[in-house]
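Researcher: Before we compare anything, I want clean individual predictions. No alignment, no superposition, just each chain on its own. First chain goes here; please echo the sequence and then give the structure tokens.
Model: Echoing the first chain and its structure:
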Amino acid sequence: MTDFHGIFPYLVSPVEPLTGKIKEDVLRQLVSDLIAKGVHGLSPLGSTGEFAYLTQAQREEIVRIVVDETAGRVPVVPGVSAFSTEEAIEQAQRYEVLGVDGIVLMLQAYFALPPTAIVRYFRMVASAFHRPIVIYTNPGLLGVDITPAMINTLSEVPNIQYVKDASPNTGRLLTTMNLVEGRIKVFSASAHIPLVVLQMGGVGWMSGPACIFPEESVYLYELARSGDWNTAWDVQRRMWRANEVFQKYSLAACIKAGLQLQGYDVGPALLPQEPLPDQAIHEIRHVIDYITGIHKGSRKAWTA
């Protein structure tokens, strides 16, 4: 099976506001540019991809375009999210036919679910899908938590091989790592400091901000892989300014605004989300200029 590691940008979903049509040329250009800048994989239909505001037809079209444009150069690992087990299985199987390399599997909850029901959901989807699975837990957004104990239980499923935990408690990641003893690998979420997760033994960063900062994100990962922690921390401290701005507003809207500023006509955040205020655009422009300006000037400037 494919080994997932490194920087996986969570792709935005470029949609025409009036027609709902996917902006295929824009999405293809973004995919091509991100691969050229060294990212290790791509993940459409995550939180940054505004999956909750897309129709299933739009989701499938996005996956089709990304898989086709990627052409096997890096793994494509889209998000699968549903309230019902049957719907999640249907999504996963459709994406498998489209040629994805794996999925990021989420569970949305309306009624409270006991741990046994949550574990059963992931087991059943995994049994119907034949490629690697990244478990994603984000209790603040999805309404359900996949605890370290549940992840340990699910580590017995052969194709459940990774986890991305976006809960605010970084210590949970270490608890999970201790429990699974290497059976499941950990990706950082933007809720955590990526370099901390990499130092703990994480294998990469699945990240909306990497759409805007692909080269900088890859550089951070390369520094961690080489063990140059002093330089890596200088880079991480500077890059963290973007997280500080994005956390003030809506992440998906911020990433779309940042890409618009970089020349990608990805369109606004999908309704019913509201447009960002002018102050947010100003802050996003400033942090992009700050981070990319340092990087493009000289990598040595990151540690100046």
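Researcher: Okay. Second chain, same rules.
Model: Second chain and its structure:
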Amino acid sequence: MKTILSIAFTILLAFSAGSQNKVNSMKDLDYGVEVKTLKVKGDISLAYTDEGAGDETIVFIHGLASYIPAWKKNTAVLKNNFRCIAIDLPGYGQSDKGNYEVSMEFYADVVVELCTQLKLKNVVLAGHSMGGQVAITAALKYPTIVHKLILIAPAGFETFNKGQRQWFRDVMTADGVRLTTAEQIRINYAYNFYNMPDDAEFMIDDRLAIRSASDFGDYCYHITQGVNAMVNTPIYDFLPQVQQATLCIYGANDNLIPNRYLNGGKTEKYAKAGASRMPNCKLEMIQDCGHFVMFEKPDEVNAFIANFLAGM
């Protein structure tokens, strides 16, 4: 009994400590690396990190409700051979948040404007989840700028009918995001993994901390806009037009793809269906791994990326 009580008390202390962290603005979040900014779309301040050097530049695009640090296990290694730039999309992390006309094309334009302003050559877009759909959109619209694609559990391979798309719009509301309890936040993050690693705890701490931020309401709004953008512009029918060499990586035990309420089934079915439509796509499935592939299995992901970019 004493052991059980001690464990429970320890968990309670950890939970309480995390929930008491606060920041005045999401710009106060500590990414552990220098954050730079540049103006895109006229006056939107876009936050990004820039590390390493190499003949190719990998631009990392996070998923829905995520941010730059989601890639830290990848940039820490890949920067030894490549220039690694990770961005906070508008509405997320340390980037500006406002009443933008959000769409997949809007995000794609922002990514490519960053590439243009920084005069990047041999651009490789790496996108996770929603970021994967953004990367595909950019590759289709700007084929002369986007050299290669790396898609990590990308959105867009799973298709939805009109009623299912409306379900997403109805379920995901700004108030719903804003009022998510601390307990549910922890459950939501755990659901992104097959076996959540201990060093992912900072994501939960940051998510709890930003509830006090002045720009938290805008962030919640942007999450709903991101969902709308994905379902409003399905990409599946356009996959055969993607000519860039593409590496696609899914966790075999992804709890988010496919959507368990609407489609269900094995992730591999949807991964193969989407990847097979792309003329130059190589698909890798990682076992015992969930949706947050690049953080849960970074060694495998980094090796796949390095080999892909080396032409192996």
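Researcher: What stands out in the second chain?
Model: The CA atoms of residues 186 and 204 lie 6 Å apart. Additionally, The radius of gyration is 19 Å.
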